[in-house]
Amino acid sequence: MKKALLIVSIGLFCACGGSKKIAQNTTKTPVVENDTPKEKVDAPKVTTPIEEKAPETEIIKETPQPPVIKEEPKTDTKAILHKPWNTLLTKHVTKDGIVSYKGFKQDRTALKAYLSTLSDNMPDETWTKADKLAYWINVYNAFTVKLIIDNYPIKSIKDIKDPWDLRFFKLGKKWYTLNDVEHRILRKMGDPRIHFGINCASFSCPRLLNKAFTAQNVDQELEKLAIAFINDPKRNTITAQNIQLSKIFSWFAKDFKREGTLINFLNKYSKIAINDNAKKSFRTYDWNLNE
Fold it and tell me: DSSP readout, 162-229?
C-alpha cells in the first residue's frame, strides 16, 4: 500500500514540473524576422555632450546705498531781492528812460518797502562781484528816485541842496550819500560801464533802465546801455574826425582810460570808427528832470 502511494506522489511531481517548463517556454518572446532583407548600415556615433561647469565666481556683497534724496533747486534770494524794484521800474519808466515821478510817489509804500529790503540785505563776503555790482547800482537809482519824490514837484535834481552829499539813507547800520555809493563803492569796482547804469534823474544822464539789475543780467545790460548811450545823438555827436561828447567822459575820464585812451574806449562801442587824432569837445549838460 505504502509503495503504491509513493509511486503516485512521484508521478504528480513530474507532472507539475513538466507543466512549469511548458509555461516558461510559452512566456518567451518569439523572434520575428522581417521578410524584407535588411541592409547593414553603420549608424553615426552619437557623442553625449559633456556639460561644462560654470566658472566659479566670487560673490561680492553689495554695500547698501542710502536712498537718493532729490534736492529742491536753490532759490537765488539775491535776485528775488530786486523783484519789487523791477515791478516799479516796469510800471513807471518807459523803454526810453522817461520817468513818471508822480507814479513813483503814488507807489511810495512799495518803494519804501524795497528800500528797507536793501537796508536789511547788504552784500557780504559770500556775494559775487556781479551780485554786488547789481546791488549797488540798484541802490543808487532807487534812492535817487526817493530823493526826487521826497522833494517833488521840482524841475531839476539841482533844485535840492547838495543832492549828492546829502546823507539821507541808511543801509545796515551806516548812513550813506549818493556820492558814497558812486565814488567810494561803484567806481572802485573797476568797471567804467557803471556810469551808463546809474541815473542822476536828468535828461543828459544815461537813461534809467526800466528793469532791475541782477547778477544774471548786469553785464549784458551795462553793455547794451554803453552802446545806446555812446551812439545816442542827443548825448553825443560822433564822426571820424570830430566828437562832441557828454561831460560824463570829462568828469570821469580816468575811469575810461584804464585800458588805453578815451577814443580807444569809445571805439569799443561806437558804430562810427573814430580816428585817434579826432577833435574832441564836450556838450552842455541838461539837468532837467527826465520826466
Answer: STTT---EEETTEEE-HHHHIIIIIGGGT-TTHHHH---SBTTSPPPPSS---TTTHHHHHHHHHHHH
Query: Strands 279-282, 242-245: parallel, antiparallel or unpaired by DSSP?
Result: parallel
What grid cell was written down for 102? 508822480
Is the full-model pTM beyond 0.85? no
Q: Judge whether 93 and 100 are in contact, CB under 8 Å.
A: yes
Q: Is 250 exposed, middle or buried (0-12, 13-18, 19+ CB in 10 A)?
A: middle
Identify the DSSP state of 140: H
| pLDDT, position 76 | 63
Element (H, E) at 58: none
Say if residue 223 is exposed, middle or buried (CB neighbours under 10 Å; 0-12, 13-18, 19+): middle
Q: Across the chain, what does the average pLDDT equal? A: 83
- The Cα 259–Cα 254 span in angstroms is 10
- What confidence score (pLDDT) does residue 233 get? 97
The CA distances from residue 167 to 12, 147, 278, 287, in Å, are 150, 11, 41, 21
Q: Is the pLDDT of residue 216 over 50?
A: yes
Q: What is the pLDDT of residue 78?
A: 80
Grid cell 580816468 is found at: 254
The SS3 of residue 7 is: helix
Give the residue from 203, 190, 211 showing the smallest Cα distance to 132. 190
